[in-house]
Write a structure and sequence with these properties.
With 375 residues, this protein is mainly α. The protein has one domain. A two-stranded antiparallel sheet has the order 1-2. The protein starts with a strand and ends with a helix.
């Protein structure tokens, strides 16, 4: 049986997008960056300005290491370090997004379970914990899951559970703070992910937040493995399919990369002019230290690989496990890259701002309890 071909006017250039399987029942979902037919896409000043600045500082570090003013050295080194740390994760996520874009929506729905149910939230949380990507890579995948029909609560649970809970970072955390505290942090982050996802589902059900326009009803009779086997047998891997995956990867990652590079620039600027040692001196286990941690986590935009060592220092040097947990979790909830990408993808400031509004108070309570337990 031949593949079904559908036309796409997506921002990847209006090329053919190829469905992996015939007679699909799901409908195509336009990329949020797509322009109406017959209109020219506007030049993305933020994206290309950030690309130019990041490339300039990266080049400065390569060509003039440890030369020039101290602030310039710190900024160029920070950008060099952050890009070298996260590039593979973002690239992997872009490829994953390209592949995910080819998977029929009913398969995604079957994997994540029924939207609005506790089992669906548990599945989304487990997927977030097991996904071995940095926070920005996870964000890219999460937005694609939303476009493929995941409910709002499932997407939020996926995002909150994910960023530092990857297998590689878990191993690093065990080495830095020990197995016991690492397991405690993972368990608590999963609890917060499920509780926050549940609150988002309730708000959607009550009409306070908009539901995903792509969300599908869950088909109880859908047989995942037999259907996957049937469609895999009909799959034809050719140039058209590979081009479709590449186009989807580029268009799906464009929005995240824009804010990612902006965050890298801002984080490097803060590193250049604000001493992290001063932050660490202020981050004691008291209420003032916890509030300072929340503020720093909001300001310091770093990938999960960058936040993990800082969180470990808060545990070992400041003797404040609650602050350590709060730094990891609040960075997820208040990350402006995440807030802006959610706003752009879901076309709702309300949804984007409800993420920190619902998550941060829970993190604050848990952090206070952890600090009291350690005294």
């Amino acid at each position: 049986m031949n593949q079904a071909e559908t036309r796409s006017s997506c921002c990847s250039g209006g090329t053919e997008a190829v469905s992996l399987v015939p007679d699909e029942s799901h409908t195509a979902i336009d990329s949020p960056c797509c322009a109406p037919a017959g209109t020219a896409r506007r030049f993305d000043w933020l994206l290309w300005s950030c690309v130019a600045l990041v490339a300039t500082f990266y080049g400065v570090h390569l060509l003039m290491p440890m030369q020039g003013p101290e602030a310039l050295q710190i900024m160029s080194h920070s950008i060099f370090e952050l890009l070298n740390t996260m590039w593979w994760s973002v690239l992997f996520a872009a490829v994953f997004v390209g592949l995910l874009g080819q998977i029929p929506q009913d398969f995604v729905t079957a994997t994540l379970g029924r939207g609005g149910s506790m089992s669906g939230l548990f599945r989304a949380t487990a997927a977030g914990v097991l996904m071995d990507l940095c926070s920005h890579g996870i964000l890219m995948v999460g937005m694609k899951l939303y476009q493929k029909g995941a409910s709002l609560g499932q997407v939020m649970a996926f995002l909150i559970a994910s960023p530092w809970n990857s297998i590689s970072l878990t191993i690093i955390m065990v080495a830095l703070i020990g197995l016991s505290w690492t397991l405690v942090f993972i368990a608590l982050s999963m609890v917060l992910a499920i509780s926050t996802g549940w609150m988002f589902e309730r708000l959607v059900k009550a009409g306070k937040l908009p539901a995903s326009s792509a969300e599908q009803s869950f088909d109880e009779d859908f047989q995942f493995f037999p259907e996957a086997k049937r469609r895999w047998a009909n799959l034809k891997i050719d140039r058209i399919l590979l081009k479709s995956v590449l186009d989807e990867a580029i268009s799906g990652s464009r929005m995240v990369v824009r804010w990612l590079l902006f965050g890298v620039l801002l984080a490097s600027l803060i590193r250049a002019f604000v001493s992290i040692e001063n932050f660490q001196e202020w981050f004691g286990p008291g209420l003032v230290g916890l509030l300072a941690t929340l503020l720093a986590a909001t300001i310091i935009e770093v990938c999960s690989e960058g936040s993990t060592p800082i969180a470990a220092d808060l545990m070992t040097r400041a003797k404040a496990p609650g602050n350590s947990f709060a730094f990891l979790m609040t960075g997820v909830a208040t990350d402006y890259t995440e807030v802006m990408v959610i706003r752009d993808t879901m076309s709702s400031w309300k949804i984007a701002l409800f993420l920190p509004l619902l998550t941060v108070p829970q993190v604050l309570v848990v952090a206070l309890i952890l600090n009291q337990m350690s005294v």
